[in-house]
Amino acid sequence: MAISNLPSAAHPKKGSAQEDLRAVDQAQAGSSNNGGNSSKGALVVKFWGVRGSYPVPGPKTVKYGGNTSCVEIRNPYHRIIFDAGTGIIGLGDAILSEYRAQNGGGPDSSDAEKALVLSILLSHTHHDHIQALPFFQPAYLSQTSLYVFGPQLLGFDLRESISETMNARYCPVRLEEMNSHKIIANMADTDRLLFRNSNKVPRVISAREELPALHHEDLLVTMLHSYSHPKDGVYVFKVQNNGHTVVYATDTEGYTGGDSRLIKFAQDADVLIHDAQYTHEEYTDLLSPKQGFGHSTVDMACEVAHKAQVKQLVLFHHDPRHDDESMARVEAYARQHFKNVIAAQEGMEIHLGE
Ligand SMILES: [Zn+2]
Ligand SMILES: [Zn+2]
User: Tens digits of per-residue pLDDT, 122-180?
Assistant: First the structure.
């Protein structure tokens, strides 16, 4: 397992010429046109947005980042995007740069082989997890097939929920006006998603169907419906690839003794990305109560990590009021409770299986 945390000075600005060059380098080194990267066979987790609730740009958040939730998990064959907070804007720009580099400098061709297949999995539809979907540039390409999966919460179809936020009263672009071919589907928490190399289109496998034997390049996603987030809970996702497991558990609140369903779901994972919005003091503060808000404390995240015996814990969904200084304190505190823990930073990558 290797972590590369690009120092902010060397980290190219998203969408800049530097970023374009880096994307070209990666595309040339990669073995496919999806998620090209130089570490062949590796599973890569990249953090594009780590913040909860609302974005917090500015000089006090440059180290950990100010964008809302977006995590990319990819191997050389597939790319899955978790949540569409403002972090997805930079990811979309990087995908477009990659696409341009691989397709002769312009996305104007309609050749079938130039198709771009992208999948976004939404934990739920609160603003900080979908607010940047209208600014995800690949969604405007007619060459893009955009799969969006997530839970059907409060009885509303996922498509209906997203479409409502892009109503003309709130957004200049309606969902239908984005040129990509969009496949938006509710997922049952018993469904599985299989990303198989021979077919870049994700396949939904219901609980009734038998799971095929997995190849080393396949990504398998399973889900857990966590009920501890208002009003109708969230999906926690588990990605498995070639013996490696990553769990994405955002917007979830702990229980006494640890969330036992989550502990079971995340058992022995290589990486557990866990909500850790509050310190214990903030959570129990009588003047401004946070209990029942559907978010965890650092202690809760550490307890789940410890009991699930995960190899690494990544604190996620940082409180927007936590600037870089307080995040450093949060991280130091967490290390006293779980040995291999890090607070997610924008641009940070974790490589598994190198
Ligand atoms: Zn959130
Ligand atoms: Zn939420």
Answer: 999 999 999 999 999 999 999 999 999 999 999 999 999 999 999 999 999 999 999 99
Helix or strand or coil: residue 128? Answer: helix
- What spacing in Å lies between the alpha carbon of 52 and ligand 1's midpoint? 5
Any idea which ligand is nearest the CA of 250? 1
- Rounded CA separation 110/305 (Å): 46
- Domains for the chain: give ranges and CATH numbers: 2-352 (3.60.15.10)
Cβ neighbours, 10 Å, residue 243: 11
Instruction: Give the separation between CA 40 and CA 319, rounded to whole angstroms.
Output: 35
Ligand nearest the Cα of residue 69 is 1
- End-to-end CA distance of the chain, in Å? 7
Question: From start to end of the chain, where are the E strands?
Answer: 2-4, 43-49, 70-74, 79-82, 116-121, 144-150, 181-186, 192-196, 199-205, 219-226, 234-241, 244-249, 271-275, 312-316, 341-343, 349-352
Per-residue pLDDT reduced to its tens digit, 184-198: 999 999 999 999 976
* Ligand located closest to 153 CA: 2
How far apart CA 233 and CA 221 sit, in angstroms, is 18
Residues within 5 Å of ion ligand 2, judged at the Cβ atom: 126, 251
Q: How many CA atoms lie within 13 A of 123 on its CB side?
A: 32
Please tell me the pTM assigned to this model. Answer: 0.88
